[in-house]
Design brief:
By secondary structure, this protein is an alpha+beta fold. The protein folds into two domains: 75 residues, Alpha-Beta Plaits (2-Layer Sandwich), CATH 3.30.70; 71 residues, Alpha-Beta Plaits, CATH 3.30.70. Helix content is 31%, strand content 42%. The chain has four helices and nine strands; from the N terminus they run βαββαββαββαββ. Strands 5, 6, 7, 8 and 9 form a five-stranded antiparallel β-sheet that branches. The chain is elongated and about 55 Å long.
Length: 163
């Protein structure tokens, strides 16, 4: 089962190492990990996506809460949170594939951010399922290179993580 966990931490040296080390020691693979400073530069927010059963997820959340410099840990439910991801993808630019690429860019509301006669670099944002679908459309057209940010997520409505 896929889970998204938000971790509110002090913005200090070594905190990310302790968080990722916990997953390593427990033998869990992190599917994606994003970290960024919050509106208060003293704190960062880590968003982690992983796969695992309910018991393992609860154990990880409990262990995260015990780590030094962790202020809050919250499981984000898919129905009550908003998730987004950013991807940059470079595809081969040929006369044969250009119109298909341009159609995909328009349909997925992506944006061409670099154009050369050899390649197109495209930016796309959205839910991970949208990013995955876009990749599948472009695979037969010649993906040269790509990179993804990982998931960022917030709860819907007025609910916030406390500092």
């Amino acid at each position: 089962m896929r889970s998204v966990i938000a971790v509110y931490v002090e913005n200090k040296y070594g905190v990310l190492t302790r968080v990722s080390g916990l997953f390593m020691r427990r033998g869990f693979n992190i599917d994606s990990l994003t970290v960024g400073e919050t509106d208060d530069p003293k704190f960062s927010r880590i968003t982690i996506t992983l796969n695992g059963d309910d018991y393992a997820r609860e154990q990880l959340i409990n262990q995260l809460k015990k780590l030094h410099n962790i202020k809050q840990v919250k499981l984000l439910e898919s129905g009550s949170s908003v998730e987004r991801e950013l991807m940059l993808i470079k595809v081969a630019n040929t006369a044969e594939t250009r119109s298909e690429i341009m159609a995909a860019v328009e349909i997925y509301r992506a944006k061409i951010i670099d154009y050369t006669t050899a390649a197109l670099c495209i930016e796309v944002t959205g839910e991970p399922s949208k990013i995955n679908a876009f990749i599948e459309v472009l695979k037969p057209l010649g993906i040269i290179e790509m990179c993804r940010t990982g998931v960022v997520a917030l709860e819907r409505g007025g609910s916030i993580m406390e500092k």
